[in-house]
Specification:
With 96 residues, the protein is of the alpha+beta class. It has a single domain (23-92), classed as Alpha-Beta Plaits (2-Layer Sandwich). 43% of the residues lie in helices and 27% in strands. The protein has a four-stranded antiparallel sheet with strand order 2-3-1-4, covered by helices on one side. The protein is rod-shaped, with a radius of gyration of 20 Å. The protein binds copper (II) ion.
Length: 96
């Protein structure tokens, strides 16, 4: 009986771990140069939002900064930089 309870406990612990294995959300800031108007910002935002693993994008054109929340199990900051570059803008990480 004791053993059965232990097994049950173990099952609960394992189930809890499986649930915890969702997205691992990280937040980072990229420097993106030459977003001179709102359509530049929209282009960068669209490119990032269309990328699997990106959860939230905040563009700060005044300071050349783009804040991104992303799932670190799917993306790296370097990949985010590549996405921005492909949309036609200079990007760097860590932010400068
Ligand atoms: Cu523009």
């Amino acid at each position: 009986m004791k053993r059965y309870i232990l097994l049950l406990l173990l099952a609960f612990v394992l189930a809890g771990q499986a649930e915890a294995a969702g997205p691992v959300v990280k937040e980072t800031t990229l420097t993106v140069r030459r977003m001179i108007c709102s359509s530049c910002a929209t282009a960068v935002e669209k490119a990032l939002r269309g990328t699997d693993g990106v959860q939230e994008v905040t563009i700060d054109t005044m300071n050349d900064k783009v804040r991104v929340k992303y799932d670190e199990r799917k993306l790296t900051p370097q990949q985010l930089v590549e996405v921005v570059k492909k949309s036609g803008y200079q990007a760097s990480w860590p932010a400068q």
